[in-house]
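Example record

The entry below shows one chain as it appears in the dataset: sequence first, then structure tokens.
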Amino acid sequence: MEYFAKYISASKYRSLDESYICGKINMALYAYIQGVPMEIVTKHETNSREETFELGRRIGESAAPGSVFTLIGDLGVGKTVLTQGVAAGLGITGPVSSPTFTILQVYDEGRIPFYHFDVYRIGDISEMDEIGYEDYFFGDGICIVEWANLIEELLPEHYTEIVIEKNLEKGYDYRLITMTKH
């Protein structure tokens, strides 16, 4: 069985001392030894479309075949911008837009196939069967699924959930992006 340690991205906590970091490592080792499964959690703060795109690009560069990412967030929060960054990180140079009305957009030009789902308009879960979602979720490319909370029962056992949140008190373009590996 695979065990994960909870981790909070050091990008927000650059001034932490070694004892704090060692404490987190010790907590992870203890959890592993005790057989307690934990999740990997990273938090990223962005303050512009460019920073959100760049985070997506880094995700795309490091994504492995078979990876599934879910995107959760309100309308206009930046899901498509992050997805465009992922596509760029995969080497896709053409335009990338949300497949709101087509549900699925396939991009084959990158280093691995990229399957972009937007399930916001799914009326019934059986519609996912009609488009053959299993071929994509369990295929050799990577998947991004916008509004994945609407089809949770179809998600594979292992995926990375990405939640994008605004906080207008921190600025119009501020985003808190939380990634949880399940």
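Notes for this example: The longest strand covers residues 40-46. The chain has a mean pLDDT of 85.
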